[in-house]
Predict the structure.
Amino acid sequence: MKPTTLQATFGIAALATAAVATWALAADSNRQSDARSVDEIQVAQAGDEKAPKDKDLSHFMRVKLDASGKILEGLAVEDFSLIKEGAQQLHSMSTAEKWRVTNDALYRQFSGDFQRITQELVDASRNENLDAAALKWMAATMSCIECHRYARGIMIADRLPQSPERGITR
């Protein structure tokens, strides 16, 4: 039996999400097991100027993965409230200060695209349109992968030593 386009699309989305989740788990073997919300992370940062930035960012990314898992589970079992919950959480997170790792034009474009896509995913779940939700989730997943690739490039460039003789300055 030949799979339909939607089944193939959903399969690709599931594989991409699983790959991203596996990579994130391997990259952060020392993750905290608490389930603090985005607001709690921001409150903790506001009260503690010496909070380790990398640790908080890692936790923030973990919360993003948890929201992503809700969406994937919702798509798999046709639970539109679970899809909506995960999409709303991602959309809300994408407007948080912690989200902005840089403020250049391309990063702002990635961020704006992600916000639009997650809002469309919320709308698809409200309309109980599984096909539209699956396609929007694929778009959100690809947006994440592209943006993370870009952000890693920026972080690597930021770590380069300043060297005017090599033409590298910040």
Q: What stands out?
A: Residues 5-166 form a domain with the Four Helix Bundle (Hemerythrin (Met), subunit A) fold (CATH 1.20.120). The radius of gyration is 18 Å. The CA atoms of residues 25 and 31 lie 8 Å apart.
